[in-house]
From TrEMBL:
Domain of life (superkingdom): Bacteria
Entry-linked Gene3D superfamilies: Metal-dependent hydrolases (3.20.20.140)
Name of the protein: Putative TIM-barrel fold metal-dependent hydrolase
Species lineage: Bacteria, Bacillati, Actinomycetota, Actinomycetes, Pseudonocardiales
InterPro entries attached to this UniProt entry: Amidohydro-rel (IPR006680), Metal_Hydrolase (IPR032466)
Keywords noted in UniProt: Hydrolase
Amidohydrolase-related domain location: 33-260
MF terms (GO), sorted A to Z: hydrolase activity
Length: 280
């Protein structure tokens, strides 16, 4: 395969908002997300520079205060309603202590431009924790009622591991599209998903999707090869930059190299995004 740049690009996962400095891992307060954007104008300038036609934009997160991310829900809705290149993803939380804030976020699910509900276990909670079940049920019920996609962060180990996230697939993905962000997020996650689980779920009728942001170099190539070998999954992979935690140029180049310049590239970089979000 060649790595000619796809003609059209939609970004299925990126963030807006500047987070406060935080002393991660016992070090001094830092802002590692150096390309974080505080304003809609800055975000639009990035899309113009990168040549991105459409983007799914979510609140930035990462510091252990979910209130910071909940507060950005109004900004992503404003961005989507200002420019039709943008779809909004709302920050939600499975944690019981965030139940009121999540209910407030879900009340915005019918707002024009909202396409996604985002949840992550990085700040706490587990898919198998019964105290999280009411919030998870409410998030997926809102997605079902409003025709939205649920995004869930994946990374190796702990509560974001594919072993845990698979509980959400089993419980909800028969009728709610579930986007497994980051393709498992690392070596073990990639192998679990590409080795069989992603394709097993598709074959079982689960509405699962993924993207290759944060993927180790071998994973997008292997994913493309398995899609070709198995004959399924081409319609379930999307391009995502995860800016500012990812790097647009690097993420784009890696997936372009893996998918070549044929139909799979067109699907991953634009058509799957349009189909998933009903942009036809």
């Amino acid at each position: 395969m060649t790595s000619r740049s796809p003609g059209r690009v939609h970004d299925a996962h990126r963030h807006i908002g500047v987070l406060p400095a935080h002393p991660f891992y016992g070090g001094p307060p830092v802002n590692p997300d150096t390309t974080a954007r505080a304003t809609i104008d800055e975000l639009l300038a990035d899309l113009d520079r990168e040549g991105v036609e459409r983007a799914l934009v979510l609140p930035n997160y990462g510091v252990p205060d979910p209130g910071t991310s909940f507060a950005l829900n109004d900004l992503v809705i404003e961005a989507a309603q200002r420019d039709d290149r943008i779809l909004a993803g709302l920050w939600t939380s499975p944690r019981p202590q965030d139940a009121a804030a999540t209910a407030k976020a879900l009340a915005l699910a019918a707002e024009p431009g909202v396409a996604v509900l985002k949840l992550s276990f990085l700040l706490g909670g587990r898919a198998g924790d019964e105290t999280c079940r009411p919030q998870l049920d409410a998030i997926f019920a809102a997605a079902r009622a409003h025709g939205l996609v649920v995004h869930v962060h994946t990374s190796p180990g702990a509560a974001s591991d594919v072993d845990e996230i698979g509980l959400l697939v089993d419980r909800y993905a028969d009728d709610v599209p579930l986007h497994l962000v980051h393709l498992g997020g690392g070596m073990s996650g990639h192998i679990k998903l590409i080795g069989h689980r992603f394709f097993d779920w598709i074959a079982a009728g689960k509405r699962v999707y993924t993207d290759t942001s944060w993927a180790i170099g071998f994973a997008p190539r292997w994913l493309a090869a398995e899609i070709e070998r198995r004959g399924i999954g081409a319609d379930r992979v999307l391009f995502a930059s995860d800016q500012p935690w990812g790097d647009f140029a690097g993420e784009h180049a890696r997936l372009a190299a893996a998918t070549g310049d044929g139909e799979l590239a067109e699907l991953a970089f634009s058509r799957n995004f349009e189909a998933l979000h009903g942009l036809g």
